[in-house]
Design brief:
alpha+beta; globular; single chain
């Protein structure tokens, strides 16, 4: 009588089974969503590295192209020379420099100085009443209503004007009839050339 005894499978027969089991296990591992700390090496390599600053380190300074320019806190020489009301005679030089830079000079320097001095005398006569007899035609119909006191010409310039005239602009200081002393007042005197001499015009 033949007795059937179980036969042990050979190693060659087990190889296909082991290979199939390994494929199933690999498929399960690949299909399972990875936790944040369990990402595959390829995913960790592709992700951008996040760096945490060292508390003891100094942050890098931005480049010059990304940093806006800051205005200097040191006042410029031009700003320092801006006249301030109430400076008195000490501020007249700054007033003169400001007027000189307001427009380009177009007269010889000596002629400009002469006309500014002449206009200063005429304007003082205008606001104080003293010396008007030197220009009778200019003041013939002008009555002095109230005189100024302590009149001082702070600065002046002369520039050419239309119709062969010259305009002299003055900045002056004085005490008005009400007793208010103020500097930085402005005036203008026009001149024309007549009989080889400069004459004021209204």
């Amino acid at each position: 009588m033949n007795t059937n005894t179980p036969t042990t499978p050979s190693a060659s027969a087990l190889k296909p089974l082991l290979g199939a089991a390994a494929c199933v296990l690999l498929a399960i591992l690949l299909l399972r969503p990875a936790a944040p700390d369990e990402q595959p090496p390829a995913a960790r390599a592709a992700a951008p590295a996040t760096t945490h600053p060292d508390p003891g380190s100094t942050p890098a300074s931005p480049t010059a192209t990304s940093r806006p320019e800051r205005a200097s806190a040191t006042p410029s020489s031009s700003a320092a020379e801006v006249p301030v009301a109430g400076d008195g005679p000490a501020g007249d030089h700054a007033v003169q420099r400001l007027m000189d830079s307001s427009s380009p000079a177009d007269l010889p320097r000596a002629q400009e100085k002469h006309l500014v001095a002449l206009a200063s005398r005429i304007w003082k006569a205008e606001v104080t009443g003293a010396g008007r007899q030197e220009w009778p035609s200019y003041f013939s119909d002008r009555q002095l209503r109230a005189a100024y006191r302590d009149v001082r010409i702070q600065a002046g310039i002369a520039r050419t004007a239309p119709h062969h005239r010259v305009s002299v602009r003055l900045v002056w200081a004085g005490t008005d009839p009400a007793g208010q002393n103020e500097d930085g007042r402005t005036a203008q005197v026009l001149f024309t050339r007549h009989n080889n001499a400069w004459q004021p015009l209204r």
